[in-house]
Structure formats: structure tokens, C-alpha cells
Here is the input.
Amino acid sequence: MKFAISLAVLLASVCAVGAHAQSEVYLCVDERGNKEYKNTGGTKGCKRVELPGITTIEAPRPRAASASGSTPKPVATPAGFPKVDDSAQKARDNDRRQILSDELKNEEQKLSALKKEYNNGEPERQGGERNYAKYQERVAAMKQEVERTEKNVEALKREIANLK
Here is the structure.
């Protein structure tokens, strides 16, 4: 019964995958009689299983590097591809820089407020936190929020540094 269910699940998953199916499927049986399906059959007790109706597509092979070791030629832009003039692109870049700077400023203010409230892991207890576990949960959530905001600040700084 387990085998029939396993086979049904395998066939359903293979059908769902479609063109991405592996070219070979093996049924492997270990010493205890446990059956397992694999896409490699190099181990003892594995037999190839033919699954009808499955077509396989080989992945394209990467092109060999040129003998001179030079980098590949850049792809030419199609003739009808829309182009942006330099002044419009500079305006867009400036807008992006300004938006990122505003976001960085807001995140730094948020981080400052969170650190002040967090108080190095010892924030003030609130009236509804008579249970120490509730206090600990709030402190852990505050710590996660501080860490998340610090990561946001770092990411924004990296993004601004990557601008031209």
C-alpha cells in the first residue's frame, strides 16, 4: 500500500514538473526493504524505472570561452528600443538618491527611538506586564525590531553608495 501511494505521489509530482523532469528515475530498495525514488542510480539495489509519457529536455550547454580569454562582446541594443536622454536619466537618478536619503533619515530616526525605548535590553515594565514572561516577549520583539531596523539602515547606505 505504501508503495502504491509513493508511486502515485511520484507520478503526480513528475507530471506537475513537466519539462523540468529528470531524464532518469531509479527505484532503490535498502536492506530493510524500504523503497525510495532517486534521480541517481549509482548505489546498490537501485533499478531504473521507465515512466511513460514523460519527455525530457536537455539544458543548453554553456558556450566555451574563447581561446584568447577575452570577455564576451556586449549585446547591441535593438533599433526600436526606447532611449532616455542624459538629462532625464540624471533627474531620475537624483530623485532616486533623494528618496533613498529620505528613507535613510527616517530609518535612522526610527532606530534612535527604538534604541532609546529598548534601553540596552532593559526597557521599563508596563502596567499590564505583571507576568515576567510577557515582559520577556516584549523585550525579545523589541530586540528583533532594533536588529531589523539596523539592517535596513545598512542596506540603504549600501544602496546610496552604489549610485553613480
